[in-house]
Amino acid sequence: MLEPILIVSIGVVAAIMANLGIAVFNDGLRPIVPENLEGRMTRKELSVTAFAMSFGLVIGFGIPISIAGSILLIHSILLGTDIIGLTFNKGKINTAIAGVLGGLYGAGIYLGLQAVVKVFESLPLNFVDGFNLVGEPVVVSFMVFPAIAVALQFTIKKGILTFLVSAIARQIIVFLNTEELISIGDAPVVLSPEGIALVVGMTFLMIFAMKEKSTEQNLSQLATLFVDRVNRIKKNIWLIMVSGALISAATNLLIIAGDPISLNLLSEGRLSEGGIAALAKAVGFVPLIASTAIATGVYGPAGFTFVFGAGILAPNPLIAAILGAVIIFLEVYLLSKMAKFLDRYPGVRASGENIRTAMTRVLEVALLIGGANAANAIVPGFGFYAIAGFYLLNEAGGRPIVRMAVGPLGAIAVGIIGNILVLLGLFTPPA
């Protein structure tokens, strides 16, 4: 019973925090929440905005990725609880209602994922195995994002340099693993090529970013300007710590994952690599999340997302929960120092948005390729045709479906169409 209890608890706590304006998961919503808290936006306007910004990502991104890996992508839960919490006005009764609905939503997502996978497995054309290919390119492609972020912020030449050095580092690790040249005693040590490439890329990004410094005269003084908002986060730290503990424990049990990359690694049983990927992603998002938290006084239910890496690498759920709570505590109480650091290095602060843009672009391409491969494995030939058509028609129609969702949703559609073709006798499933 521990798994559903954790998911329900995460839903309850996250919905309550969203309702009270303490924390929301959607980075785009964080700057908008204070508009309501300070009386410049009605709750109805805020709830409509939250729905518009998050619902499509839940349906088109979070749930399809979760089905592909049989592990819940945290977006499926926390984007939904953002909507639930922000729908109700603040108040003891409304906050309690938001919490109850958040818990029910978490239970529905947890049980619904299992039900959907079982339904897919029982169909005449079982496309679960084929659909699992959706995430295959994501792990390898993800190592490109630091180079893209460098290119966006520091010129294409530096981006190409970062890409080439990262690629070379990856191939060196592949060679060392193949030849078993690294060992402890008689046991060969296998390193993650993609993880090393990611670390190399992030190193280049941080070096370029930290070359840009502010003088004493032009410091923006984030810490001074937003001291009241940082104190507001500290005031609510206990509830955020509970959220961090629950999320870390659930990650340890492999119920949830914080991003598609670590999710796919965990679904393949590559726990250490998944932990490294989760931590690397968290490092990349620190400037963005720290800046928005300091400026708005609204935190995230998973903090800087280090709780996911800690949960993966912890030996058991109890230790994971303790680590999750401690990590959130340290993050919140270091916010003022982070503000001073971001003041001193504006290049690092600016890198946050570029990192987010780079990750989005990489995921758009990787999930489109993965969706095409999955669709073609389900219905050979027709799969490539369907995904190409789906993508181009979506673009021609003004992109009603976010690009990241086209591949996964297209693969599901091909699986459903394939089953219809089997029932009509127009398609024989591959052996």
TrEMBL record:
The chain crosses the membrane at residues 6-25, 95-113, 133-152, 159-178, 190-210, 237-256, 276-299, 306-330, 365-393, 405-427. InterPro entries: Uncharacterised_YhfT. It comes from the Bacteria. It holds the Pfam family YhfT. This is Uncharacterized protein. The keyword rRNA-binding does not apply. The keyword Transferase does not apply. It comes from Alkalicoccobacillus porphyridii. Keywords: Membrane, Transmembrane, Transmembrane helix.
